[in-house]
Design goal:
Elements: H1 8-12, H2 18-53, H3 57-85, H4 87-105, H5 111-139, H6 145-153, H7 155-174, H8 177-197, H9 202-217, H10 233-237, H11 242-273, H12 278-281, H13 283-306, H14 308-328, H15 334-361, H16 368-395, H17 400-406, H18 408-421, H19 428-431
Helix pairs in contact: 2-3, 2-5, 2-6, 2-7, 2-8, 3-4, 3-5, 3-16, 4-5, 4-8, 5-15, 5-16, 6-13, 6-15, 11-15, 11-16, 11-18, 13-14, 13-15, 14-15, 14-17, 14-18, 15-16
Length: 432
């Protein structure tokens, strides 16, 4: 049984007016953008915060990682809440939570207060993303689903760039607290719009009605929606036909974020060690972000036309080649190196857009938010272990060139895993 092709989203989204689909996509894009702004603003506020409170590096690291810990808890909790209350209540509650925490953070008076607020706000940041991905997938027409998911997910790097731009314009005159004020007001304003303008998922509503009718009728509504699973949560993801796709998706997201966070964290230092001035090496992150944004539309088109897993496989092979080429051109002129940064953004950053879309489209309505949440958690494991392992290897004497070459190995493994994912990919060829 192909659960992903015969799920509630395909039936319930068939007759949705185009204007409503556009409204849902736009609101979800703004939510993701706000989430990206709040997630990354701490990086730009940290130097001023450290000076004002005389924070040692050990405590500053705790502040920087507090939201990540909260996000993991939020990712776990949101699946249970979303499958029972709906997508919209979780999105609304998440916006209110991390918006309020950011706004209060603007008045924080100590590192301990900031840690507590970032930890609490991380609950909302972790819970909101899987639900906006799920809601978008359940409103999107099947032939546009990958494009809509990928284009929406670009809101994260755009939000991060917005936080950087706000820092560049406002920090010198207004100080670090202004970033938290902006990061609090934006999601709180969005929460008001969401309350009045964002509809609940038709697939979730149909499934909830089927669950209510099941005890009386003895069956779900003649196959119009997914039959309610016997078990939910992690048990459902690791049982039956979902086990294989769950393990593959965990591997793909873990590998891709291993690569993405490693290269984002270490590339400026690698370029500096290769002789590039520090101010120019810092541009690597900007050009990688540009690569992600430029990649979104062609990758979305390719995913809908040829399949998301197939496109992801090409992306992983291209990432492997980009790592090797960048390693061999470390001493090349600046234009070559910045072009390499764009390519790494297109392949590694673009690959994450595809992984997220693939994960969202690979689960039935009843466990979609839970599935996306646990895929994201698996990615966090890669995001944490990647930069740490790179540091160990460089500290053991491995050269920067060979570190980049070695990173092509997990990229190749990801390409092979993407080939396996083609067995369950609900791309255009299956969905239409």
């Amino acid at each position: 049984m192909r659960t992903t092709q015969i799920d509630a989203a395909a039936h319930a989204a068939a007759d949705i007016p185009t204007a409503r689909i556009v409204r849902v996509w736009l609101l979800c894009f703004l939510i993701v953008l706000s989430d990206g702004f709040d997630l990354l603003l701490i990086s730009y506020a940290a130097p001023g915060m450290a000076r004002e409170w005389d924070i040692p590096k050990s405590s500053l690291g705790t502040i920087l990682s507090a939201s990540a810990v909260g996000m993991v808890v939020g990712l776990i909790a949101q699946g249970y809440l979303s499958e029972r209350l709906g997508r919209k209540p979780v999105i609304l509650g998440s916006l209110l939570l991390f918006g309020a925490c950011s706004l209060v953070s603007a008045g924080a008076r100590s590192a301990d207060q900031m840690i507590a607020l970032r930890l609490l706000g991380g609950l909302g940041m972790g819970a909101v993303a899987p639900n906006v991905f799920t809601l978008t997938a359940e409103f999107a027409p099947s032939h546009l689903r990958a494009r809509m998911l990928i284009a929406m997910n670009v809101g994260v790097p755009i939000g991060g760039l917005g936080a950087g731009a706000a820092g560049a314009l406002l920090l010198a005159e207004h100080g670090w607290r202004v970033l938290f004020a902006i990061g609090g007001v934006l999601p709180l304003l969005l929460a008001g719009v969401v309350f009045f303008a964002l509809p609940e998922s038709p697939a979730f509503l149909a499934l909830r009605e089927a669950r209510r009718e099941a005890p009386r009728s003895g069956a779900a509504a003649a196959g119009a929606v997914d039959p309610p699973p016997v078990r939910g949560g992690l048990a459902a993801l690791l049982s039956g036909e979902l086990r294989f796709r769950t393990l593959i998706l965990w591997m793909l997201c873990g590998i891709n974020l291993f690569l993405l966070y490693s290269i984002q964290g270490w590339l400026p230092l690698i370029l500096t060690a290769s002789g590039m001035p520090e101010n120019l090496a810092s541009l690597s992150g900007v050009f990688m972000g540009l690569g992600v944004i430029l990649a979104s539309l062609p990758l979305g088109w390719s995913a809908d036309r040829f399949g998301t897993a197939r496109t992801l496989k090409v992306c992983f092979w291209a990432a492997a080649a980009a790592f090797v080429l960048t390693a061999h051109f470390l001493q090349a002129p600046l234009s070559f190196l910045l072009t390499g940064c764009v390519l790494l953004g297109v392949t590694s950053g673009g690959g994450q857009l595809l992984v997220t879309a693939l994960g969202t489209m690979s689960y039935p309505t009843a466990v979609r938010a839970t599935g996306v949440g646990f895929v994201t958690i698996a990615g966090r494991v890669g995001a944490i272990s990647g930069p740490a392992l790179c540091g160990v290897l460089l500290g053991a004497g491995l050269s920067e060139k060979w570190l980049l070459i070695l990173m092509s190995v997990p990229a190749a493994i990801g390409a092979l895993g993407s080939g396996a994912a083609q067995r369950f990919d609900s791309g255009r060829s299956n969905a239409s």
